[in-house]
Amino acid sequence: MEYTPYFDTLRKTRLLRGMTDAELTLLTESLAPRVRRYDKGELLLMAGYETKDVGIILEGEITATKPMPDGTPITMARMGPGGVFADVLAGGRSKSPVNVTAAVPCLVLYLPYDGMLRPSGELSAAHWKLLQNWLETISGKYFSLDCRLELLCCKSLRGRICLWLLEQRDQTGSDTFTITMTRAELAAYLNCDRSALSRELSRMQEDGLIELFRSTFKLLDPERLANEM
C-alpha cells in the first residue's frame, strides 16, 4: 500500500508527530504495518480480548465503548482520522476494557507492537522519535484517566458538565468548540440521564454560562464555570 497520501494524517497523531516524510517512509518500510477497511458497525476490538497492534485511524470514525454490568454501553471516546487506540493495551498482557467499533466506514492502520519495541537492526533516529512519542502518549492517557476520575467525583451534574466543558476548552485552545459525541453518548460519559443533561444545559444557557447550537458549545464565562464546580 502507498502510505504517502496519509502522511499528514499520521502526523496528526501524538505517536508520529514531528515526523518528516523521509522518517515516515522509513518507519512504514521497517515496521510493515497492516491496513484494514471496516464497515459501519463492524468490531475492531472486543472487550475481554488482547491485542498486539496499535491502531491509527486513516479514514472514518470509531467509538470506544465500555460495557457495564447491566449491559449499558458507555462511550469513552470517539475518534476520527489521526485517532490512536490500543497504544497502552498493546504493550501488556491486559485484556481490552472496551469495545472498539466503526462508527462509519473506516480505514485503520495497525503498527505491530513487537516491531515498535524490538526492531531488527540498529535503531534509526525516526524509531527513537517514535518510542519517545509513544511514551508521551501513554503518559497523556494516564492523565486523561485522572481527569475522568475527577469528573466522576463531582457530586452535582452541573459540576461535571462545567469540568468537562473546561477540559474541552483546554484541549482545543478555544472558548468555542464542536464535539463528535452525540447527546446520548455525552450523557453516558457524564454518568447521567440524557433528559437530565438537556435540562441542565438549557439552564446553563439561561444563566448566561454557555451558548449551545447542536454539537457546538461556546463558553461565555469560563471563570463562572470554574466557580460552579
Q: In words, what does this structure look like?
A:
With 229 residues, the chain is of the alpha+beta class. It has two domains: 4-149, Jelly Rolls (Sandwich), CATH 2.60.120.10; 155-227, Winged helix-like DNA-binding domain superfamily/Winged helix DNA-binding domain (Arc Repressor Mutant, subunit A). Helices cover 41% and strands 23% of the residues. It contains eight helices and eleven strands. It has helices spanning 7-12, 21-31, 113-117, 125-153, 157-172, 183-189, 194-206, 222-227, and strands at 34-38, 43-45, 53-59, 62-67, 73-79, 84-85, 99-102, 106-112, 176-178, 210-213, 216-219. The strands form three sheets. Strands 1-8-3-6 form a four-stranded antiparallel sheet. Strands 2-7-4-5 form a four-stranded antiparallel sheet. The chain has a three-stranded antiparallel sheet with strand order 9-11-10. A hairpin with a 2-residue loop joins strand 10 (210-213) and strand 11 (216-219). The mean pLDDT is 89.
What composes the largest sheet?
4 strands, antiparallel
How many strand units? 11
Total helical segments? 8
Low-confidence stretches: none
Q: Mind telling me the C-alpha Rg?
A: 19 Å
CATH topology of the largest domain: the name is Jelly Rolls
Distance linking N and C termini? 50 Å
Q: Give the helix/strand class.
A: alpha+beta
CATH class type of the largest domain: Mainly Beta
**Quaternary organisation of the protein chains:** single chain
